Amino acid sequence: MHYKKITKLAMGLLLTVGVSSSLMAGSFSDKQQNELKSARATWQAKNIPSGMQSGDLRAVTERDSGAENVSMYIENVNFDVVDNIGFYIEKLNVTLEPKVAGNPVVFDDVESFTINVHSGTVVLSPQVITDLFNDHILDYWPRPLDDLTITTKDDYLEVEGGLKLWSWFPGIYLPANLGGNIILSSDNKLVYEIDDVRVLGIPLYGLLSAIFIDLDLLLSIDRAGAELVDSVLVLDHTAVFPPPALAGSLASASLDSDGLRLVFADNTAPEFSAPPVASDSYILAQSGDPRLFGIVVVNGTVQVVAEDTSKPLRFNLYDYRKQVSAGKLTMAKNGDIVATIPSSDGPDYMAAAYTGSMAKTSSAATTSNTAEPAEGCINRAGFNVCEEVKVAAPAPAPVVEKVQEVVEVAPISSEAKAAMKDMAAGTCFNRAGFVIDCK
């Protein structure tokens, strides 16, 4: 009798537990599905920065956010396209635009998309310009100029290297120096106005001008985006760099000791959301569909920051896989991804924005016997242009009886050079192109 009662009680308890478990499982499942539904609504919500989407949106699917491009904001980053050819980016608003509408932006195929620069400032250091010419613009044979070294100062760019006339004469490269300013042309191209030519230390520009010989009769540049016309070198910034293609109009170009500073101002309206992680140096991709490692991040926010926060992030587009695989990825419930990666190899430029809080972080991690950068090593952009400067005792000033007054003259313009060809035969000019008495 007792046995039957106990059996019935046990069966009742088992039934109660089973029903309760089923109800709890259903409750958890409903909660999970509700959370997933809420998260999906967040993922699919449009998060496009204002002013960055010009066309109509496509229909949203699980594999397509409908955005026509990837909106990107970059701040305080050394951005290399390949090797050391790239830019130091102060602040930049860009869109990465696939050449085939509707496709994701494939980082592993740099020829499949265009970087359209809306606004911001980039700096090409003298070393970057040197590498751009040696390793890209003049990367063919035979070439007229070789082993160039480029330096910049206020409104002037100097080139030192080897020169062969007509790319072959005299069979060896002769030591040569060129100098001039860079201006913007009316069709938004960079124009290097050469006003000084020296071969074996002998000034030739004035002589060539006097006998109406332009440099393009002696040299030729055979590279898309670079053309020597008369005695000026015309560079098209949309074609002269390695892929991906670059788009966007330049507002100004200037030279100083930091290098070549390019300012874009096509569209200054975009406003990006605050990045997931507060940082002084980062890349933020907001909206659109970037494809990395074969994985498409649909309508996602991806922020890239450096492991070493004491200096700006250095990112290499052609070698991004190596950097990302050596770092770590974190993801929030709303789909935001933060990639913390080691910087790529290359010169460690220190931006001016880092002389504050990040400089303090860096100094705290160094030992007491680590010396501060020598005076004069930090240029106006904050770049450390030397590792060590040995200060020698100043030499006594030489005693001179008379100081000759030096008068600086502006370099002759292209229009003035053309006008010189109409002058009467026998007219004499100085190096600046002014008419002087023949002696």
Task: Write structural notes for this entry.
The chain is of the alpha+beta class and 439 residues long. Among the domains are: 1-44; 126-257, no CATH class. Helix content is 19%, strand content 33%. The chain contains six helices and 23 strands. Strands 1, 2, 4, 12, 13, 14, 15, 18, 19, 20 and 21 form an eleven-stranded mixed beta sheet that branches. Strands 5, 6, 7, 8, 9, 10 and 11 form a seven-stranded antiparallel beta sheet that branches. Strand 20 and strand 21 form a beta hairpin. It is elongated. The model is unreliable at 351-357, 360-372, 379-385 and 387-410 (pLDDT under 50).
Write the layout of secondary structure elements.
Blueprint: H1 2-44, E1 70-82, E2 85-98, E3 105-106, E4 113-124, H2 126-137, E5 145-153, E6 156-165, E7 169-184, E8 190-199, E9 202-203, H3 205-210, E10 226-229, E11 232-235, E12 245-247, E13 250-256, E14 259-265, E15 282-286, E16 290-292, E17 295-296, E18 301-306, E19 313-316, H4 320-325, E20 328-331, E21 337-341, H5 357-365, H6 414-420, E22 428-429, E23 435-436
Parallel strand pairs: 1-19, 3-16, 4-12, 18-21
Antiparallel strand pairs: 1-2, 1-15, 2-4, 4-14, 5-6, 6-7, 7-8, 8-9, 8-11, 10-11, 13-14, 15-18, 16-17, 20-21, 22-23
